[in-house]
């Protein structure tokens, strides 16, 4: 699934979010916050967040893999900003054109936590979006495919994008 992999990518970058990837994010969220999940897939992230007391008020995906997930495109959905939620939290596709559109759109609607490869922030293509980046929470390598022997080849992190605030980006290193 990464740049150093010979494996074919899954269509639309559908890799359900493992529980281990969610745990590092929890200490950085307001207690009992509500959220929108715009790339809900099979709802794995929503289920993990619920275990910590967080409530998803809207789950959507362009190709839903779960029954409670609405078929909608968050990049064109006009009603996204009308939902009463505290945050947007998602494991987005890592395709740069899609990812960049999501950062640009979502960060102006609500504070947005995205889970993706840590290398992105060290590239030139990230420059236009860095002024929106408020916090980085390191996760490390994740096992994206349950039952496989290997983790992914890319380190990942949660990145908080928020157009409503300004300031330096805070970096939270990986916990033990």
TrEMBL record:
* Keywords associated with the record: Methyltransferase, Transferase
Record GO biological process: methylation
Cross-referenced CDD domains, in alphabetical order? AdoMet_MTases
Indicate the segments annotated as coiled coil, or none if absent. Answer: none
The GO terms this record gives for MF are: methyltransferase activity; nucleic acid binding
Q: What is this protein called?
A: Class I SAM-dependent methyltransferase
